[in-house]
Amino acid sequence: GKFREDPSISHRALERAMKEYPYLSYQYIEAANDLDLNFGGKNSSGNDIDFNKIKADAREKYLPKTYTFDDGKFVVKAGDKVTEEKIKRLYWASKEVKAQFMRVVQNDKALEEGNPDDILTVVIYNSPEEYKLNRIINGFSTDNGGIYIENIGTFFTYERTPEESIYTLEELFRHEFTHYLQGRYVVPGMWGQGEFYQEGVLTWYEEGTAEFFAGSTRTDGI
């Protein structure tokens, strides 16, 4: 909302929120973000709040676990409540989807070497509530069940219960993983750029094939 006529009142209120709420709580991070956006990252005394450190500490707190597969080409950063079994299942799901994708497109060579997607990073928060922090600490929209950002080769999502989403984590991962494969092996350039994306005429292909390959299996095709 708009500041009151005296911005110093809002300035002090944000500073007070950072003192009252626990370090790295949602309210603390939100207040720090507002200070960074509206007051140059400084408190009312003119001292730097070191917002970059706050964001780095938040990533460490909310994504403390790291798993590495395929000689570092597939990396998972996860919340402490996301089980190792679930992580491994997602890894094997990626193998199923990729195998069927390659069988259909008949190409297993990346269109452009040296892109950020040479390494795929999967970021999984513990819950929808913790996922909301991704808007602040990584700078991407959280008004979704998960999102793949091609120009950094990273998929952001969260663990969920049946009540929190009509899609399971694995179902959503399979869909978004197909978008990763599309960008790496079929469509040159970054997402949203180039002839493929002009006027949105091939959105049906992009989303349709993602839904199609999400049903991939190891032994029974798609």
From TrEMBL:
Q: Cellular component GO terms, alphabetically?
A: extracellular region
**Catalytic activity as recorded in UniProt:** Digestion of native collagen in the triple helical region at Xaa-|-Gly bonds. With synthetic peptides, a preference is shown for Gly at P3 and P1', Pro and Ala at P2 and P2', and hydroxyproline, Ala or Arg at P3'
User: What cofactors does the UniProt entry give for this protein?
Assistant: Zn(2+); Ca(2+)
Q: Does the keyword Transcription apply?
A: no
Q: Which superkingdom, per the lineage?
A: Bacteria
The active site consists of 176
Record key words, sorted: Calcium, Hydrolase, Metal-binding, Metalloprotease, Protease, Repeat, Secreted, Signal, Virulence, Zinc, Zymogen
Q: Name one GO molecular function term.
A: metalloendopeptidase activity
Give the enzyme's EC designation. Answer: 3.4.24.3
Q: Where found, per UniProt?
A: Secreted
One GO biological process term: proteolysis
Under InterPro entries, the record lists:
Peptidase_M9A/M9B
Hey, which family's this protein in? Belongs to the peptidase M9B family. Collagenase subfamily.
Q: What is this protein called?
A: microbial collagenase
* Organism of derivation: Clostridium perfringens
